[in-house]
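Appendix B. Chain record.
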Amino acid sequence: MVQGKWFPQGSDITIPLDLRRAIFQRGRDALDGEAQQVVVCDGEIPVGIARLWWKEGAFYLGELGVLPGARKRGFGDLLVRLVLYKVLVHHGRQVRLAAPPEMVPFFTRYGFTPDEKEAAQKDVISMSLWAQNIRLDACQGGCQGCPTGSVSK
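Structure tokens predicted for this chain:
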């Protein structure tokens, strides 16, 4: 059974940290005290992680990743949907993230759009999604073989 587990601020984040080290080769940092962590497990085995925190009027999604051996099985999709659901439950108005260029198409499927106001660094693209555009029941198009078509601007 696939399941997600949230680790709120102040909880023991040993499992999320172990995953972060395995996926990103990074350990604890200053955001850990402010962020909620979500882990997706395949049975009892943790396979993916994402982090959500509040800053300057918006939620931020970061450190989303899946172990290499568990990729292409929908765990990343589940992580994004868990985070977006949490944003809606907390009445968030906007979700922001910074993505490497190769991940922009992945986040575009959920309605994230590149921010034009911020200058993008060469290795990171700032993206955002307004809460009223969050759709948990379907993608926003652009998926391989997707009948929804492309993302409308």
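Further analysis of this model is presented in Appendix C.
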